[in-house]
Design goal:
There is one protein chain. The protein is of the alpha+beta class. Among the domains are: 75 residues; 49 residues, no CATH class. 24% of the residues lie in helices and 11% in strands. The protein contains four helices and three strands. The chain has a three-stranded antiparallel β-sheet with strand order 1-2-3. The longest helix is centred in the C-terminal third of the chain and has 22 residues.
Length: 187
């Protein structure tokens, strides 16, 4: 299964210096596509498909699922000791880039800025909108569940468009009271 990543259909899932193995999959008529892979440290599965059983746009397991798996596992392996993959061996340490020699022996080479790849530190506006919508739906569900049986059952709420929600410039900077108190909903 390590050859699926190194030489086969899941080359997009390969991780630099980390031994990897896995398997791609695609169902008939391209309805589902997945990649299930593992390293010495973690196992992860990524599936893409449509809940309504309609086909995807000719997606295979070696395309978007393998790329997504690669992105997830790159972040997951940051700052940890890479373990050996049974049957394959240990990963190869990626060498550090050579530091340029300076003319003056006593002068230190300038340090390059440290760039840490990974998820963004703040949610995107779309991600924050979705979280606010989910929070409102859960609040409404809790209110409906606590109503007594003597009351008339309420109509289910329709989803709110993201344009109707108040959104702070920085989602992380919003206080808990700001996140729950937004513009009135239009029903």
């Amino acid at each position: 299964m390590s050859h699926v990543v190194s030489e086969g259909t899941a080359r997009r899932a390969a991780l630099d210096g980390i031994p990897t193995a896995g398997k791609t999959g695609t169902t008939n008529s391209y309805r589902d596509a997945w990649f299930v892979g593992y390293t010495g440290n973690f196992t992860c599965a990524v599936w893409f498909g449509n809940d309504d059983y309609s086909p995807t746009n000719r997606m295979t397991g070696g395309s978007l699922p393998a790329q997504t798996w690669h992105e997830i596992m790159t972040v997951a392996h940051q700052g940890i000791e890479i373990k050996e993959l049974p049957g394959v061996g240990a990963g190869v340490k990626v060498p550090q880039p050579a530091q340029p020699q300076t003319v003056a022996a006593g002068a230190a080479a300038p340090k390059a800025p440290e760039i840490k790849p990974g998820p963004p530190p703040v949610l995107t506006k779309r991600g924050a909108d979705i979280l606010v919508q989910v929070e409102k739906m859960l609040d409404e569900a809790a209110k409906t569940a606590t109503k007594t049986s003597s009351e008339e059952p309420s109509k289910p709420a329709r989803p709110v468009s993201s344009s109707a929600l108040a959104f702070p410039d920085s989602f992380a900077a919003a206080s808990p009271t700001e996140a729950t108190s937004s513009s009135p909903r239009k029903n």
